[in-house]
UniProtKB/TrEMBL annotation:
Residues 12-22 have a biased composition (Basic and acidic residues). It comes from Kitasatospora aureofaciens. This is Uncharacterized protein. Residues 1-22 are annotated as: Disordered.
Amino acid sequence: MDPAFRPGAWLRKQDKARTDGKLTDQQTALLNALPRHAETVTG
C-alpha cells in the first residue's frame, strides 16, 4: 500500500464526483463495495 495514499481524502473526492453525477454506475458500485472490503481486510 502506498503510504502517501490517503483513503479518506480520496473517498471524499470520489464522493463529491458521485454527488456531481460524474461517476459511471460501475464506478459507483465499486466505491460502494470499498468500505465493506476494507472492513474485511482490517477485520
